[in-house]
Hints:
There is one protein chain. Helices cover about 35% and strands about 10% of the residues. By secondary structure, the protein is an alpha/beta fold. It has a single domain, classed as Response regulator (Rossmann fold), CATH 3.40.50. A four-stranded parallel sheet has the order 2-1-3-4. The longest helix is centred in the C-terminal third of the chain and has 40 residues, at about 120-160.
Amino acid sequence: MSEKIYNVLFLCTGNSARSILAEVLLEHWGGGRFKAYSSGSFPKGAVHPLALDLLEKLELPTGRLSSKSWNEFARPGSPVMDFVFTVCDQVAGELCPVWPGNPVTAHWGVPDPTAADGTEAELRRAFREAYVALENRIQAFRRAADREARAWRSNATSMRSATPARPRNWSYHDIGH
């Protein structure tokens, strides 16, 4: 029996930097167990050039990235999300769509690198800091998912039952708050 692949949506207002970085990071670190998506409440329409530059310098894929509306994921026929994370304070306070499938939700506030002022070096540092903050959260989330998967396998073996399709009682702290 193959493991379930979890759909994860990262939300931000503009979907041009933080949510994009999170999408790429989870795809990279997720070990094939997660399908990452990103979107925004008011998408900018393009990925920020400094986000693309950072990802390319780290040799992470950027070819399929785009800035898109969260409405794309609230429509019938859209992938059903297992987890939805807001990565900016502004979108966390907005009225979000009703997500099909009743996903686990959490807020990961990360400072907006696109709002940084200063020299080009200071702007690039703001993007690197956002990247590192998101990478730390995603690594913690992945470790929590790994612990949960081991518990499911152990229970399934001892009870000779199938692995549940959804995580059981994930707490706010399990997913990296």
